[in-house]
């Protein structure tokens, strides 16, 4: 599978608990932090749920 880089670009303050937990499950803790993960169906689904809070780029 391809790797993708996920960067948190917005805060999780005033977001619902589900979005906060999704961001945490992706491995993100603060704004401008990035993680590189394998692009599988579970990760892509999590990205769709919080796409307004993250930026995604293919590696």
TrEMBL record:
InterPro entries: Ribo_uL30_ferredoxin-like_sf, Ribosomal_uL30_bac-type, Ribosomal_uL30_CS, Ribosomal_uL30_ferredoxin-like. Residues 4-54 form the Large ribosomal subunit protein uL30-like ferredoxin-like fold domain. Transmembrane segments: none annotated. It holds the Pfam family Ribosomal_L30. It comes from the Bacteria. One of its GO terms (biological process) is translation. Keywords: Ribonucleoprotein, Ribosomal protein. GO terms for cellular component: cytosolic large ribosomal subunit. One of its GO terms (molecular function) is structural constituent of ribosome. Part of the 50S ribosomal subunit. HAMAP family: Ribosomal_uL30_B. Belongs to the universal ribosomal protein uL30 family. NCBIfam families: rpmD_bact. This is Large ribosomal subunit protein uL30. It comes from Mucilaginibacter ginkgonis. The lineage of its organism: Bacteria, Pseudomonadati, Bacteroidota, Sphingobacteriia, Sphingobacteriales. The gene is rpmD.
């Amino acid at each position: 599978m391809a790797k993708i880089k996920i960067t948190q670009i917005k805060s999780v303050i005033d977001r619902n608990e589900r979005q906060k937990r999704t961001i945490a499950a992706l491995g993100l803790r603060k704004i401008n932090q990035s993680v590189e993960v394998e692009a599988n169906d579970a990760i892509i689904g999590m990205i769709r749920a919080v796409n307004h809070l993250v930026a995604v780029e293919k590696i």
